[in-house]
Amino acid sequence: DTAVSQTPKYLVTQMGNDKSIKCEQNLGHDTMYWYKQDSKKFLKIMFSYNNKELIINETVPNRFSPKSPDKAHLNLHINSLELGDSAVYFCASRPGGGPNEKLFFGSGTQLSVL
Amino acid sequence: AQSVTQPDIHITVSEGASLELRCNYSYGATPYLFWYVQSPGQGLQLLLKYFSGDTLVQGIKGFEAEFKRSQSSFNLRKPSVHWSDAAEYFCAVARTGGGNKLTFGTGTQLKVEL
Predict the structure, then answer these.
(1) In chain B, what is the straight-line distance between the N-terminal and C-terminal CA atoms, in Å?
(2) Looking at beta carbons, which residues of chain B come within 8 Å of A105?
(3) pLDDT tens digits along A42-97
(4) pLDDT at B67 over 80
(5) Is the CB of A106 inside 8 Å of chain B's CB atoms?
(6) Closest CA relative to residue B20, chosen from B59, B74, B70
């Protein structure tokens, strides 16, 4: 009964490969996010979707493509992986996307690009 | 654009001692402010938030924070730290509009000496 679940938890891959990270929330929230946490623990927003519509798209290489098949799912596909993509990727959601709302986080996917 | 500064990268306190983690924000309008905690290998969990009303807010696990507009600060406090409080703490500010993006500080790692 995990609220925000991400798979896989660990992902080790070679440079140049394509990989996907999946995220699902069972909270009935309208808004979902992807955050990237680097080796210094800095958290940076990448994307946000509200009801399957893209509303935040930060300066992220276009090798990263989010996909939201429905409002409970937000997947992240990464093409041509590079060493610098190594990080922990967090999915999160909040009820309506309002600024005063709490974010619910998944437990993260640690991506290691070799 | 909003920003958050956490001046202390690492803080070590003895169990039972008091704790204050500093946070300064930059935002043109009334800010929505948050403190999140991240335990090793986990996602972030909300400790408390402020957006209006009483400037001293109470959170979970015995934490509190005080909003001081004159100092652009939102410092987190706890009167008596427990060993289980050892974690990474993030201050964050949300803006209205533009997807109500939540921007995180760089985090403060708290170590608790027994």
Answers:
(1) 41
(2) 43-45
(3) 999 999 999 888 988 887 899 999 999 999 999 999 999 999 999 999 999 999 88
(4) yes
(5) yes
(6) B74
